[in-house]
Fold each of these.
Amino acid sequence: MDKLRNYDVSFSGLKTGKHEFKFEIDKEFFQLFDTEQEFTNPRIAVDVLLDKHSTFLEFEIKVSGTVELVCDITNDNFDHPIENEIKVLVKFGEEYDDSEEDVITIPTSDHAFNISQLIYENVALSIPMKKISPNISDEDLAILDQFSAKEHEEEEEQESDPRWDALKNLKNKN
């Protein structure tokens, strides 16, 4: 938890207005979280824009860089560009509450806000569900298409049930 403190944005001594913070993220950052990653070798720059107001804080967190993914088709490694942005409103209240999507409430006594979880989520949301290398050949795609399951349109002839026919006639008259 101590290493996550490196991602605290202290706002108590800042004047009202806009302030910028920059972070460099690598694999050590993601090792702080107890989850398995779908990528390796992250090289990510994080730009944080804090707009401090008297009663709330606005955070704009932009991530850009690259991560190494494994292609779902060829199993080859490739670099995938990461670029994403999230905006979060931080307001003050009795206790910590992140139940709303874009609004986080922190205790009034806090003097800093930790953005590590927001950075982590921002990067995780940038990883595509299908990981296909840009270097995949047309031959690989053709083989994949050849052995992929095809959609079969099955035309079923349904026998008409006389009990429902009477109801259908009522529907058609209206």
Amino acid sequence: MHSEAVASRSADPRDARDTRESRNGTPQLDAVSLAIIEQLQQDGRRPYAAIGKAVGLSEAAVRQRVQKLLDQGVMQIVAVTDPLTVGFRRQAMVGVNVEGDLDPVADALTAMSEVEYVVMTAGSFDILAEIVCEDDDHLLDVINKRIRALPGVRSTESFVYLKLKKQTYMWGTR
């Protein structure tokens, strides 16, 4: 969204319309909050004053909005690393087939420190989990002794990453 379009809308930071919950409990964001997110996706260290100028708010109003977005779990501001450069030499996507309820298996995977994300899917696998490990022995231990040992896990299939060509979190706010 262009800053001119955002600035032309009501940008009163006290306006309760910045976020509302939808029927399913997810926050519905206004155009200004979406524009703030886009600014931070371009540069997570961008000063609040610069963001405010781009979206038509004061620095204090931007700070307040960003904190609200963080508190609601709408976004996170993090440093994204290349796993290889910080000692994690093996990454893999693991497809998991489950007998019965998926939630307990998904919850157990989510609790594992090596698991970066967990997705419940429709298709060949019930759950996909991305795993980041120090080496092949570590990956084998996670899959063989921890994932396959979970109650309800029927089978797994591993897709070991040979080379990471693209990793981005810039899907925007549409």
